[in-house]
Amino acid sequence: MSQRTVRIATRRSPLAIWQAEFVRDSLLALDPHLNIELVRIKTQGDIILDTPLAKVGGKGLFVKELEQSMLAGEADIAVHSMKDVPVEFPEGLHLPVICERHDPHDAFVSNHFKNVDDLPLGATVGTSSLRRECQLRHYRPDLKIVPLRGNVNTRLAKLDAGNFDAIILAKAGLERLGFDERIRSALTPEQSLPAIGQGALGIETRINDDAMNALIAPLNCELTSITVKAERALNRRLKGGCQVPIGGYAMLTGDDIWLRGLVGRPDGSEMLQQEIRGKASEAEQLGLMLGDMLLKQGADKILEEVYGGS
Ligand SMILES: NCc1[nH]cc(CCC(=O)O)c1CC(=O)O
């Protein structure tokens, strides 16, 4: 029974490796006799580094190759940032486990300024996230938003090279890599509503791999699963792609859930926001309803323009 081998498919970025090792160590804490290997895979998202992802197009740029390795039997599980996981899974695969969420907020990183309000008029901020760009422009129309891609380490190096007054990154990614001291402040959800699934890790497996599904089941965090499922239901209703600024963040208090959603234009000229509260047991329906509210408010028009109508 022991000496079972688990092959974890992971991207090669330092953050992805940290996340795969986090899941490896969590599994080893449950059964020290497991034999766990990392299968390091290069994805499209890692290869195309000089183009804003929204322009590269296509969903699941960071997960497709990991899924193929599982379907080909070269890996047993894949660890993903939930933020990067598309709403639909390929036939034969599912995502039964969402681990306890780390900090979901965006972080303000700068060598000279302590928060967004502290930035001088016309300051340069690096981000390639349309969601961050939209909200920053909406909040501070004077800021100059400049594309910034690459993994977390690369982005910090570009900041240090003096290319930007500040950059915005996910707090969770910085903290996982030990860059806590680089975080000058957290952006509140009112300043920057996080990305759907931000801060949460998910584990994808083959649906029919009963042994593996049972093995990873204890890593599931029920509370995180509920909130992320609500956020992902919102994304499903909005047919969330990476060309539209979309934000979504759910919080649980006891049996109640509070879900906020945002759809906007990258230039910040329009930013629609809605929120909904209800029973946690209806998390997914609430996510879909919130999507409908945003669509009715005008998100349908924005999405239609971006995706060229349908
Ligand atoms: N798109 C890259 C990505 N995917 C997940 C994270 C952060 C970690 C997380 O949200 O779990 C990041 C980096 C960032 O946005 O700064």
Automatic annotation (TrEMBL):
According to its UniProt record, which reaction does this protein catalyse?
4 porphobilinogen + H2O = hydroxymethylbilane + 4 NH4(+)
Q: Which residues form the Porphobilinogen deaminase N-terminal domain?
A: 6-213
- Is Transferase set as a keyword in this record? yes
Keyword list, A-Z = Porphyrin biosynthesis, Transferase
Which GO biological process annotations does it have? protoporphyrinogen IX biosynthetic process
Q: What class of enzyme is it?
A: transferase
What cofactor does this protein call for?
dipyrromethane
What Gene Ontology cellular-component terms does the record carry? Answer: cytoplasm
List the NCBIfam families.
Answer: hemC
The entry's family comment says: Belongs to the HMBS family.
Summarize the subunit comment: Monomer.
What HAMAP family is this protein classified in? Porphobil_deam
Q: What is this protein called?
A: Porphobilinogen deaminase
Q: In the record, what lineage is assigned to the organism producing the protein? A: Bacteria, Pseudomonadati, Pseudomonadota, Gammaproteobacteria, Thiotrichales
Q: Give the gene symbol.
A: hemC
